[in-house]
Amino acid sequence: MMMTYKLFLDDYRDRPDTSWNVIARSKKEFCQIIEAQGLPREISFDHDLNDTHYGLNYSDKETGADCAAWLHNYIKRNNLELMPFKVHSLNPNARRRIELAITGYNYV
Question: From CA 42, how far away is CA 39, in angstroms rounded?
């Protein structure tokens, strides 16, 4: 079941506007939100979820591509359909990794 919330995944940036009403700062938060609330209406992915990039101290060092791979498996396991998504990472290689991961391809 797809919910009405929009999920913004980024360890540092704030959401671009209030339509992105849920923010996840780590893979752990990302997974917990989806497991608790179901699929969002849309997701915007950042790639670098790592405290070394911005001097922050988040314990989860995984990437947006890891979140996308988890989401692919969640959708497949629950027989759901992929919702619209975008990637707001400024890194073109990272963008491609997320796009591959969410469609089930090996992104390493």
Answer: 8
